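Data's thin. Show one?
=====
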Amino acid sequence: MKHATFMVRLSALLCFFALTVGAGQEKKGEPKTPLKKATNHKEINWMPYDVGLHKAKTESKHVFIDFTAKWCGWCDKMDSEVFSQPEVIEMVNTNFIPVKVNGDSNQELNIDGYKITEKNLARHEFRIRGYPAYWFLKPDGTKLGVIRGYRPTDDMMKAMTFVKDYKYDSTRTESTQNKEKSKN
């Protein structure tokens, strides 16, 4: 029953974006260093998937994955218009482990001994068929949901707040949240 409630809430979030915003446009190793190290919260601290997944588990933070491709115009638009906004940068760097995956890259990732290219991760593990696409994962790596296509700043902030605040999880209680805060 709890699983059904979770699925209903997740479906509601995804339907919200699909219906109210519109369809949008789609087109155990040592941790590596971030893809681009941001300073003073002026940029998002994107990192490779394998590094981000490990970091999410150790820091108990959700993962925000930006699936992109170099040829993708809508991806560039997201980078320049949404991921450059101070409130988005602050939200992502503070509350998520930000991961960027190039869906055309043959860069090999090492996920606890399982080796896969970024291209195969996008196509086979996450079933990405168009770009941009944004996946949210729980801190343990469990998939929560995907948002596809260009999304304005307000819509991305709503989705990130929904995930950050565990709104998808009806089993969380105030005592559960307090226990988690005391661990950190």
Q: What stands out?
A: Residues 2-183 form a domain with the Glutaredoxin fold (CATH 3.40.30.10).
